Each structure stands twice: as C-alpha cells, then as structure tokens.
Amino acid sequence: MKLFSICFLLIILVQTQQNLNYFEYGVKVIPHPQKQAKGGEDAYYANSKLLAVADGVGGWQEQGIDPSIYSRTLCQNLGQLYLQNEKKYQNNPKDLIINVQPTVQYLGSSTLVLITIDQVENYIYSSYIGDSGYMIFRYNQQYLDIIFEFEEQQKSFNFPFQLGVEENGDNPQASVKFKHQIQHNDILVIASDGVFDNLDMNQIKNIIENNGKKNMSSNQLNNLADKIAQSAFEFSINQNYNSPFSKKAWTNGIRTYGGKSDDITVIVAQIKLKKEKKEEL
Predict the structure, then answer these.
(1) Which GO molecular function entries does the Swiss-Prot or TrEMBL record give (predicted)?
(2) 3-state class of 237 per DSSP?
(3) Fewer beta carbons below 10 Å: N end or C end of the chain?
C-alpha cells in the first residue's frame, strides 16, 4: 500500500510538471585560452524555470584576486535564493538580483543576466546588469524572426555596469527589467559578452536557422549552444575579423581590429508552453 502511494504521488508530480510552462535548454562554456586550467571566469545557473549567466570582471586579476570566485558564488547563491522562494521571484528577477548582491562577500565583481518563466501565463521575465544579455527568436515557417535584442549597460566603452561588494560594484537597482509575451518553441540565447563581442545578431540567427529546428530536445539545444560558442571562439582569435567589438571600439575612437578573446558562455533555451506541449503529445 505504501509503495502504491509513492508511485501514485510520482505520477501526479510528473503530470503536474507537464502542465506547467518551462525551459528546455542546452549550455556550452569555452574558457579564454589562457584561463582553461581554472575553467574561465564566467558562471551560469540553469534549470527549467530560471536561466542565468554571470561574467566575472577580469580586471581583478591584476590585484591578485580570482574573478571566478565572485561570479560562481553569485550564481550559486541566486539559485539557492530562487529555490527558497520561487513565487516571490518567478515574475520579478530584478528582486533576485537586488537580494543576491549582498550575499556575496568575496572581493570581485560581475555582470549578470537572469530570465524566469511564468509557469502558468505565457510570459518570461528578465533582468540584467552590464553586458551579459539575451536575444529572443521566433520561427516563422522555416525562418526565424528576431523578437528582441538586449542593449548592453555600459558606463563607457568596455566598462560595463556590474555587481560587487559595496563600492566595488554598482547599485543592483540599476539593473533593467523586461516582460515578454512568449509563444511555444520561441528560442532564447543568453550569453556573456564573449559571444556578443564576436557574433552579431544576424550571425547568431543564421547559426540557429542552419543548425536548429522548431521543436528541439535538450541534446539538440546543447548541440546548438556548442555551434554558437564554437563560432564565437573561432572569431575571437581571428585578428583579420571585423568583430562587433572592434566596430564599437572604432565608434569610440579606439583603433583596433579582430575578434575579442574572452570566456564564452551561452545558454540556448526553448520555450515549452503547457497547452501546446499537450497537443504535441
């Protein structure tokens, strides 16, 4: 009787999960060539309801401080905070940024982008500070439409807003937030600037069109994340490439050319809505 009860509860749990909106996702990380031994200074957190990417600010290395400790602790703590009170943060990831900032007491700083999904209504919510960000794509027949592209938060060229301990970071209230109405199988690309400094929006769109499809599994999304990350990496070490980073540098009066070598972290997620998921089954 006890075994029957446990099995019945597990069936109910699975059915409940299938009746909620969620993220299917894949992840790829490629550290900077000189930082491979420690895994780079980016960090991420991902589950079916929350996606996050943080980029530890490399300048701290000059003071003998490992930037990865801050970004990794930040992602670990925000995951714990979210799981402790999902209802509070599900539709307000900016509050999660505000509340996680004082929990990290290591010297360092980091950019951060968060996206949450409303498990009942067809919306996602985002908040970010700095130049880690995201894009949203939607299939229109076999082609992709670009639904949203973030604007990086910079104080000046290559000087992003960032979270840190007290005077070492910016006020988390400076983080911006958005609410997006979503459709089944919309695609999100959430990444650190190692991606966006080396690939523009149309290049990312073309990679998805050539390697993705309308309904993807987690393995297929991992493969797509790998394609985007590998492309960003190849361009990052190409000194003959007119990268998005070099174009921005020229706009700011800095004469430089080529890709920008950096840590690369990308999450590719696909929206799965409860109603449409049932119809596919």
Answers:
(1) metal ion binding; protein serine/threonine phosphatase activity
(2) coil
(3) N
**Local structure of residue 165 (DSSP, 8 states):** S
Terminal Cα-to-Cα distance of the chain (whole angstroms): 31
pLDDT tens figures, 149-195:
999 999 999 999 999 998 889 999 999 999 999 999 999 999 999 99
Backbone angles phi, psi at 107, to 5 degrees: -65, 140
For residues 113 and 43, is the Cβ–Cβ distance under 8 A?
no
Q: Detail the DSSP E strand segments found in 67-198.
A: 109-117, 123-129, 133-140, 143-149, 154-156, 159-160, 163-164, 176-181, 187-191
The predicted pLDDT at position 202 comes to 98
Buried b (16+ CB within 10 A) or exposed e, 133-150: bbbbbbbeeeebeebebb
Question: How high is the mean pLDDT of the chain?
Answer: 93
Cα separation, 132 vs 195, in Å, equals: 9
Boundaries of every domain in the chain: 2-280
Q: What is the maximum alpha-carbon separation in the chain?
A: 75
**Strands 264-272 vs 187-191: parallel, antiparallel or unpaired:** antiparallel
Q: Is 60 helix (H, G, I), strand (E, B) or coil?
A: helix
